[in-house]
Amino acid sequence: xxxxxxxxxxxxxxxxxxxxxxxxxxxxxxxxxxxxxxxxxxxxxxxxxxxxxxxxxxxxxxxxxxxxxxxxxxxxxxxxxxxxxxxxxxxxxxxxxxxxxxxxxxxxxxxxxxxxxxxxxxxxxxxxxxxxxxxxxxxxxxxxxxxxxxxxxxxxxxxxxxxxxxxxxxxxxxxxxxxxxxxxxxxxxxxxxxxxxxxxxxxxxxxxxxxxxxxxxxxxxxxxxxxxxxxxxxxxxxxxxxxxxx
Amino acid sequence: xxxxxxxxxxxxxxxxxxxxxxxxxxxxxxxxxxxxxxxxxxxxxxxxxxxxxxxxxxxxxxxxxxxxxxxxxxxxxxxxxxxxxxxxxxxxxxxxxxxxxxxxxxxxxxxxxxx
Lengths: 246, 115
Prior knowledge:
The complex is a heterodimer. Chain A is an all-alpha fold. Chain A has two domains: 14-183, no CATH class; 196-246. Helix content of chain A is 74%, strand content 0%. Chain A contains twelve helices and no strands. In chain A, helix 4 runs antiparallel to helix 5 (81-91). The two termini of chain A are 35 Å apart. In chain B, helix 3 packs antiparallel against helix 4 (95-112). Classes of the chains: A mainly alpha, B mainly alpha. Chains A and B meet through helix 2, helix 3, helix 4, helix 5 and helix 6 of A and helix 1, helix 2, helix 3 and helix 4 of B.
């Protein structure tokens, strides 16, 4: 697992930073998880009768695994457009705090907001996790280009995997499809575990693992959002108490 | 799919109910993060909430699994996650090793218990 090439002191060109980000795709364990994941998404898209072009456009535009699974399965099952939009919108709430916590790492003095729209689009769990790991080694002026490069690399991989999954769907045994879907929770968990260096992140992970399914089981509306706010705030409180006791 | 009329309708639906409801959170985040410094105290809380939501997604996908994953018994899915975490810890906190161990356990378990 190599770290991005540019070092702290030498200024980098935008193109070089973009390429460093793009190349970081190939050394990221996440790429392989992403491949498996999108093979699964391509396969279900085929099974629900969507065209290959539509499926690829969905991969690029939606750029969030769970949202795309929800989109394809609800739309394919004939749910009303309003229901589909609501379900997709709820699954996307998690992107808000992720993007908010990542963008300040990208911004330098005088960076216009519109330049952050593309990095924000690329932000999904994979990029968020890798950004927290790789960005500190990238000079600030190259960070936006770096993320755009990394995001483009991931998008290329995911599109290729979607294509492969779409055409392999008919030949795929049930167990393999299940195993591909299982990649998502496994990879999310491992990478969050690795990234959780501060106590507050570990506590948030632990609380979230318990409260998430609990809120869902109790059928609380917007369960993920509320369990996230409750567990995250509790973890932050633990952090503050610990800081105060120091 | 049949509910949507024609190719154009399908793409319109993709943008309106697939792209926009998801992307709007990213746009809101661009607005909210204006003027926020990398070391801002509130970001610690925001990151904790993001981590907790993600943890909720992980637990929900494992316990209330969608699609074909639901054909694998819940106890086996939970067991496979635990094997994955053990693999992660044993192999110097490697994401790849953890994922491999978890997947191996899931497939081996499903084969052993006659899926």
